[in-house]
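Hey L., structure's done. Input below.
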Amino acid sequence: MPVAGCRERPVMRERGQREVFCGLTGIVWLHRKIQDAFFLVIGSRTCAHLMQSAAGVMIFAEPRFATAVMEERDLAGLADANDELDAAVARLLERRPDIKMLFLVGSCPSEVIKLDLSRAAARLSDRHAPAVRILSYSGSGIETTFTQGEDRCLAALVPELPRVDNAPPQLLIVGALADVVEDQFARLFAAMGLDTVCFLPPRRAGDLPAVGPNTRFLLAQPFLADAAKALEARGAAHIAAPFPLGAEGTTLWLKAAAQAFGVDPMCFRAATAAPEARAKRALAPLEASLAGRRVFFFPDSQLEIPLARMLSRELGARLVEVGTPYLHRQHLAEELALLPEGTVLSEGQDVDRQLDRVRAAAPDITVCGLGLANPLEAEGLTTKWSIELLFTPIQGYEQAGDLAALFARPLDRQTRLRV
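Output:
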């Protein structure tokens, strides 16, 4: 195992035209997680169309998100946007009494007209308490990448967490995980003897975990810088670890928690040996498809560095370039140490320059956003949509094979099309 890897590796910093989704996209997985919460986007018809198309809502489903559409009168200042927002919230809560938590989600249009959603949330919380807790965060894509929507949502939740000062030490897992993955991790922690484990976000708005000086937290996603900062301000301590992608990443992630709580190493191995072996068996058949394949990551989701580590170390892929929108060196230190020495790293985006580099490199797989995938496919490059890695459960031992298959599938499709 390398000691330093790319931890001190210089990073190309790109500052130019970007190609990313906005933070509203995070609602697609967040609204499935907090089952009695509702996300009300304060935006334009474009925001509404984005959410409908990104979520693919079934015709018979009653989704837990909507858009309060801002018309030309709002944007021109001819109507009081606060009055219209208050009326929209009142209608929504009257029609949906099952809502226990309401997020007012800012967008590019609401930020352009300087609509203060934090003040609106406080005003509406007073009006509708105690039945509904109303919070706000920004999903604007003006200066963000799409995964920061989840970060800002969780950061908005942190001040609402109950405070405990003298409670026994507890572990908090931070990041939206599919319920099946959350259940798997809960069983693994219980098998290690860790019973005081909570998850943020919770499945129900009324189950917000308490936080205090005896809280230690593990990040399940690498893009939660604001949420982590807010938790540290509440007295919680971050446990440094790689992220739970692949067999190795999951073991190291769980091991960091076990060491932080003094779990006996033999107990840890007893809990993780069998699922780790299953994960390695699931990865083995896919290594033949991915070993030696050259992979280029465009900056899009902030998952790029953990994914690159998993593809390189567990599947034998070769890394041409690993780009990420923002590189948080503290949160990614353990991941950077595991990357092959000499890996080309870039932060931020200058899409024209990166397109020149990917065309020159002609990699076997290009991981990028939807806006770039189809044009690159038309040029003969095989692509993997980065957003699919957010919509699909990929964390943990049982999902390791599924994660590898997401990268093997485009190569298989390319082979079949050639035949």
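The chain has a mean pLDDT of 90. The CA atoms of residues 295 and 365 lie 5 Å apart.

-- N.
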